[in-house]
Amino acid sequence: MSILVLPTCPDDCTGLPLVEFDVCAPEIHYGEVSKIYIAAADADPFTNIELLAEWTARLSETSVDPDAIRPLTVLGDLPVAEQSELTISGDRTVVGYKQFILNFEVDETNSVNYNFLLTGECNLSFLIWFETSDGVMYGGNEGILATVRLSLMIPRERTDITKYMGTAKWKSVFSPLRSHSPF
Question: Is there a contact between 141 and 109 (Cβ–Cβ < 8 Å)?
Answer without folding.
Answer: no
